[in-house]
Structures are given as C-alpha cells and as structure tokens.
Amino acid sequence: MMVTEYNDPGYRPMSMLNLAGFLSRSAVNGPGIRAVVWVQGCPFRCEGCFNGQFQSFSPATLVDPDDLARAILSIPGIDGVTFSGGEPFAQAGPLAELGERLRRAGLSVITYSGYTTEQLAEGNDPTWPALLAVTDLLITGPYVAGLAAPDPLKGSANQQVIALGTRIPVPRKAACPAGAGSRMEFTIAPDGTVTTTGFPTPALVTEFSSRCGGS
User: Fold this and answer.
1) 5-25 pLDDT, tens digit each
2) What CA–CA distance (Å, rounded) separates 160 from 28?
3) What is the domain-level CATH number for residue 41?
4) Which single residue of 38, 56, 68, 114 has CA 20 to 30 Å from 62?
C-alpha cells in the first residue's frame, strides 16, 4: 500500500503513539480534572474541525505508551485521561495499552471518535475492542458544523455519549451549566506555548482568530 498523509501504516512502529499534543490538566475535556492525549492523524477531515492540524498522519511525536503512562500517573490530583485527536481508533492498540495501565491505577478513560457507534461495533480491526474495553465514557460520531450545539461533552448534536461501565455516568442535561458547551480553556506553558481546548462556538473561533491576526 502506498503511504500517504491519509493513512498511518508505515509511518511509525505500531507499538508507538504518534502524539499530536498533551495537556497535563484540563477542566473542559470531560468530568473532573483530566489529562488530555491528542493523537496525530484522522481519516474524516470534518469541515470546521477545531484540530485541523492533527488530521495528517505524518509523524509528529512518537511516544512509548509505558513512558506516557508513567508521566500521567505522576500528575497529582487528576481524575482520569481523555483520548482525542486526530482519531484515537486509528491508534487503538497503543492507546488500549496506555488506558489499561491508567485504569489499573484508578484513573478513568474518556475516548472521542469520529466513527459512529455502529461503525465501531461492526468494525473488523482487532485493536478496536481493546480500546473500547478500557474506555469508561465514549463519544462517537463525526463533527457536523451545521449541528454545533452547546454541550459539555459533544461538539455537535449528532454525536452520541455512551457510558461503558459505571466509573463515569453520562451527565444529565439539567445538571449542565448554561453555555458549558461553549467554554474554552487556555493553558500557558513555561516556554510560552498556549494550548487552546474545549468546545468553542463558531462565532467565538472567528472572533478569536480575528483578534490574533487572522491566523
């Protein structure tokens, strides 16, 4: 098979994670305080994707899951980890290994995917069940800009939130603060790097972009 930016095999050892980004603490990527792992590479190319720079399957930062597990477990006071991207199920094997270690230590796992629930259930990739097995809360479905809606867990209304077990119950809508889905979080690293995450409204993204010189 020819290797292109749209597919992953050949770019990295399949035991390694192609990591697009990492945040040690976040309050807008699921219930509680969570570390966030963004993987590099996504086959969906959703219009209006907030993480467009994570779509290419080109190598970013290759990380051993054991090393990343140790780093996450050294972070005090977090409730769990969120896998996002990119497309986590494009790297289901190493993420499953990472998730298993974290759950054994008492952390919960949230996994986002552009695949629908039906696609994940019917898929023939042998690594997908392993990632599902270590996932406590699963958010499925592609982002659809025309269905963008304020929700603390979903980017658009078509997406499904599914509890796989009892560690993280699906939040009731009545318990969600107004406007929670449009929150953004800015984290400034010691080197000055700014990480922006959350579920911004399209208008907020446009305003933020214009204030930053249109970039």
Assistant:
1) 444 544 445 689 999 999 999
2) 18
3) 3.20.20.70
4) 114
